Amino acid sequence: MENYFKEGDADVPMFDFNIKSGKMIIRGRSFPEDTVEVYLPVLDWIDVYITIPADLTLVQFELDYFNSSTYKAILNILLKFEKLMGSDKKVRVEWFYHERDIDMKEVGEEFEGLVDIPFSFRIKQVNA
């Protein structure tokens, strides 16, 4: 199995999923024209990954904005990783948000309430 990497653009986030480290990063903005086309390969990759996961899978969401169809895709991603809970493998989510973007923090808290995965919330560092 190969790592999964897709460069992002103005409408699609960057995906950087590393098998060995178990670190999965989704960063940027997500409001693609065809959400299924963007997220189906990600979901398919996760299906294979969870059969041979790292001891710790760390999923980092560093999204500045996403639309409602992406909301469903994120939930599907989290539900797939949730399957690892209760096994001898661990999963954690780090949800990044800008300090003044309380809406983004709240949607992360909403996801936290929908899945059985521990979340931690981190304020994004602003590049000077």
Which labels suit this protein?
alpha/beta; 34% helix; globular; Transcription Regulator spoIIAA; 6-stranded mixed sheet
What would your notes on this structure say?
With 128 residues, this protein is of the alpha/beta class. The protein has a single domain, classed as Transcription Regulator spoIIAA, CATH 3.30.750. Helices cover 34% and strands 30% of the residues. The chain has a six-stranded mixed beta sheet with strand order 1-2-3-4-5-6, covered by helices on one side. It is globular. The N and C termini lie far apart (38 Å).
Q: Helix count, per DSSP?
A: 3
Class based on secondary structure composition and strand pairing: alpha/beta
Low-confidence stretches: none
**For the residues shown, what is the average pLDDT?**
95
User: Largest beta sheet, briefly?
Assistant: 6 strands, mixed
Rg to the nearest angstrom? Answer: 14 Å
The CATH architecture designation is: 2-Layer Sandwich
Number of strands: 6
Q: What is the overall shape?
A: globular
Helix content percent band = 25-40%
CATH class: Alpha Beta
Query: Cα distance, first to last residue?
Result: 38 Å
Report strand order across the widest sheet.
1-2-3-4-5-6
Return the string of H and E elements. Answer: EEEHEHEHE
